[in-house]
Design brief:
By secondary structure, this protein is an alpha+beta fold. It contains eight helices and 14 strands. The chain folds into two domains: 3-198, Ribosomal Protein S5, domain 2 (2-Layer Sandwich); 209-352, GHMP kinase, C-terminal domain (Alpha-Beta Plaits). The strands form three sheets. Strands 1, 4, 5, 6, 7, 8, 9 and 14 form an eight-stranded mixed β-sheet that branches. Strands 11-12-10-13 form a four-stranded antiparallel β-sheet. A two-stranded antiparallel ribbon has the order 2-3. A hairpin with a 5-residue loop joins β11 (310-313) and β12 (319-323). The chain binds ligand DP6. Ligand DP6 is lined by residues 29, 32-34, 40, 46, 124, 126, 165-167, 223-224, 227, 273, 314-315.
């Protein structure tokens, strides 16, 4: 497929006004997207677990303008109050998607959005937020284009979400989503996420992710800036190749349910991500001392108890603790006894692998 396939082919008879509401989950990457080309094309393929509890709910109310606006006409309401500081990001998103949603200048939009997780938790809301917004906007197109199948809708929603934030394209569906061209994965695409097409052992079906909130403040370097620093990075070529190799290795790991290999690969990916940050120019560190303390505790616990519990990191200090359903009680006990002390105000979020976005009644 090419980008042209996402441009509506005929003029749509769109409604005067209406509203749509979607709840879209966050996701946690196992093989990380870090580095991008123009037009939100990833420099390497990635794969993630879709989450369940961490989500953004967005309602978009739209009303036709008497004449199309010069710029985009919208209000942004975040958790009940107008939020001007979010508008530039939405504006950029509208600019990027207007070709694919040609009706955007014909309406005034009221975008009301809220997260299930605390705003200052350090959990990125761009993935769930851009996914929820894309789904609402695409629902307007679908209301006038009944020929659009569910599969086409999901694909285009992922395509649009990617233009808002790369990782958002993995937040439309569940439970294991792959994004980015990969030789060994038929149908894989740089343009949108797909459901992982190979066999996955049941051990990965109810996987848990307990998110330890180590540091809740703003990140010192945004993901977008971090991606940019992969351009000309001395290790970029090898890193991108490594992501391809890791996706290839995961095929066997997933089908066999090989937890040891899974944990080794996922932790290596997390540390490689941060190693790329530490070796960028300029370099930066997003981990905090407590991030490392937690990692060491997890390694010690795993070694002494043989419990299959591992960690991954996103672009921040928080630690995602991953474990299968079969060791849930043990893992929670360990987290409470030994890890919560390293969390800011003792805060953590119990999440698990989920099934993707849902449309809600307005
Ligand atoms: C470390 O998707 O937030 O979480 O495309 O610039 O919006 P933009 O970046 P973003 O980057 C996510 C990076 C990551 C890894 C991942 O989710 O794969």
């Amino acid at each position: 497929m090419t980008t042209n396939d996402f441009i509506p082919k005929k003029k749509l008879d769109l409604p005067e006004k209406g509203s749509f509401k979607w709840k879209a989950p966050s996701n946690i990457a196992l093989v990380k997207y870090w580095g991008k080309l123009e037009h939100q094309i990833p420099a390497n393929p990635s794969i993630s677990f879709t989450l369940d509890a961490c989500a953004t709910t967005t309602k978009v109310t739209f009303e036709k303008l008497t004449k199309p606006s010069e710029g985009f006409s919208f209000d942004l309401i975040f958790e009940g109050s107008k939020k001007e500081s979010f508008k530039p990001k939405i504006n950029t998103f509208f600019e990027r998607v207007q070709e694919y949603l040609p009706f955007l200048r014909a309406y005034h939009f009221t975008i009301e959005t809220s997260n299930s997780f605390p705003h200052s938790s350090g959990i990125a809301s761009s993935a769930s937020g851009m996914a929820a917004l894309s789904l609402c906007l695409l629902s307007i197109e679908r209301s006038a284009n009944r020929e659009m199948s569910d599969a086409q809708f999901d694909k285009k929603a992922s395509f649009l979400a990617r233009l808002g934030s790369g990782s958002a394209c993995r937040s439309i569906k569940g439970d294991l989503i792959q994004w980015g061209n990969h030789q060994g994965i038929p149908e894989s695409s740089d343009l949108f996420g797909i459901n992982y097409p190979f066999e996955v052992h049941p051990i990965f079906k109810n996987y848990h992710d307990t998110i330890l909130l180590v540091h809740k403040g703003e990140k010192v370097v945004s993901s977008t800036v971090g991606h940019g620093l992969m351009q000309g990075h001395p290790f970029a070529k090898n890193r991108f190749q490594q992501a391809h190799d890791n996706l290839q290795k995961l095929k066997d790991v997933f089908s066999k349910g090989d937890l040891d290999q899974f944990m080794a690969l996922v932790e290596s990916e997390a540390l490689t991500l941060h190693a790329m940050m530490m070796s960028s120019s300029p370099y930066f560190i997003l981990m905090h001392p407590n991030t490392l303390r937690i990692i060491n505790k997890i390694w010690e616990f795993r070694k002494t108890t043989q419990t299959p519990i591992c960690f991954t990191l996103d672009a921040g200090a928080n630690v995602h603790v991953l474990y299968p359903e079969t060791v849930k009680e043990k893992a929670i006990q360990f987290i409470q006894d030994q890890l919560v002390v390293y969390c800011e105000n003792g805060h953590y979020i119990c999440d698990r692998i989920g099934n993707g976005a849902k449309e809600l009644k307005v």
